[in-house]
Structure to design on (180 residues):
């Protein structure tokens, strides 16, 4: 029995290449299982909700968070990755400033998407009036994602509006879908 225990301990040693790869596979399998559970739970809860916008957002965010936590835990267990992680963290801070400046509109849409989902000023199914470059349009809210809000106007055209525009505009809610 002790031979088997020693063999397993040797195989899972994070200092060896085989152990690091095996631990990575285990962490990936565990994270994927948790993500599958999150997706299944979100589907079950969504069946009982009339507005699933916030649920979809929370589910997607939780899935990304599970993989991120799994990677951080894996990097913490493997000694060679700890030193690399420190160097990457220093480099990532410089890169994040550059990317943040380059993607300020995208990040603005993301933050506005958080606000739209959390504050629920408008919801899927609402009829709204919104100022556009072509004038005021009346449209139904179809999708509220983190980057864009999709509206369908009276002529059945899709109007895709960046969320930072939605948050910066005066919106007139004409009608709210019942049950929301």
């Amino acid at each position: 029995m002790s031979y088997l225990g020693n063999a397993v301990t040797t195989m899972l040693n994070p200092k060896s290449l085989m152990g690091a790869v095996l631990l990575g596979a285990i962490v990936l399998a565990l994270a994927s299982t948790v993500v599958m559970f999150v997706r299944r739970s979100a589907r079950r809860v969504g069946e009982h909700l009339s507005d699933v916008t916030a649920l979809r957002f929370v589910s997607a965010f939780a899935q990304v968070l599970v993989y991120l936590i799994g990677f951080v835990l894996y990097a913490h267990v493997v000694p060679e990755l700890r030193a690399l992680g420190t160097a990457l963290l220093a480099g990532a801070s410089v890169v994040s400033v550059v990317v943040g400046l380059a993607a300020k509109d995208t990040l603005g849409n993301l933050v506005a998407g958080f606000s739209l989902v959390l504050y629920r000023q408008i919801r899927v199914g609402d009829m709204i009036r919104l100022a556009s470059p072509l004038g005021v349009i009346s449209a139904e809210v179809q999708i509220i994602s983190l980057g864009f809000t999709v509206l369908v106007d009276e002529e059945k055209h899709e109007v895709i509006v960046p969320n930072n525009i939605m948050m910066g505009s005066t919106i007139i809610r004409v009608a709210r879908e019942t049950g929301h």
About this structure: The chain has a mean pLDDT of 82. DSSP finds six helices and five strands in the chain. Residues 34 and 56 are 16 Å apart (CA to CA). Strands lie at 127-132, 135-144, 148-153, 158-162, 171-175.
